Amino acid sequence: MRTRATPRGLQLTELGLGAAQLGNLFRVTTEQETVETVDTAWNAGIRYFDTAPHYGLGLSERRLGEQLRSRPRDEYVVSTKVGRLLVPTPETADQRDTEGYDVPADPTRVWDFSRDGILRSVEASLERTGLDRFDILYLHDPENHFEQASTEGIGALIELREQGVVSAVGAGMNYAEPLAELIRRADIDLVMCAGRFTLLDDTAVADLLPLAQERGVGVVAAGVYNSGLLSKPRPAADAMFDYQPAPADLLARTNAVADVCERHGVTLPEAAIAYVYRHPAVVNVVLGARGGRQVQSNVDRAATEIPDEVWRELADAGLIPAAFA
């Protein structure tokens, strides 16, 4: 699999595995599915793996660590996130998590972007994964705690980078503007932009992407299917966009993009992946998956060559910016 380098030289395979599903996102992921997910990704050449304490209240980190520990450590890149400490709450162990993961509600999440909170978070994540180090650390969804996260929080991550504890630091969010502001404020390496640079959402195009390119910050594109709307050749009538039912006008636009794709013998999800690679700031696309079949499907989609005519026709129809034709 081809790789792209961050400005400081960290090599990432163009496709990464997002491990939220290993934390039982929306439903239980079996142990067999966990093994198949990582094995299939590894065998396909994927060497970048992303997780977080938030994903299944530590379950994703534990499972991913179990699958990676037996593999040569210098052959893969792994990232996790900081900002949510997991605090034991045995009094709620009989309840289920309320943030989308099918796990018991013990522990619970506590927001903390202080220096001490970040150092504690990294230490706990190392313990859960059983790994000797992380290659990338991201502030996780800090938009509602931005002042502390963009000063004390990112300062702690930069300190860890300067100490050689981690190779790259940055932030991951579902919003483009706070990511752009963080680039303006701090010497970061990467941003993970979820859902704001896709075939249907070009929010990041105006500010974040050109700023990242100017400042030498790599962009990891996540959420390129926009919560499922772009994940099938044709969107279902009840398809989701940003975790909400897609409005009628967006469904119509999605079908218009699918029309163009079909005329050229490619599918909507194949184009959704290929589109984000067209910006030079993008160094990786992270896709979540559950089980070997989903991983292989993502790998095959990412390997599909999209004819230039697709981009030209989409631009002519006003469905993508002309700069990406």
TrEMBL record:
SUPFAM superfamilies: NAD(P)-linked oxidoreductase. CDD domains: AKR_FDH. InterPro entries: AKR, FDH-like, NAD(P)_OxRdtase_dom_sf, NADP_OxRdtase_dom. Residues 14-315 form the NADP-dependent oxidoreductase domain. It comes from the Bacteria. PANTHER family: GH17980P-RELATED. This is Aldo/keto reductase. It comes from Microbacterium marmarense. The lineage of its organism: Bacteria, Bacillati, Actinomycetota, Actinomycetes, Micrococcales.
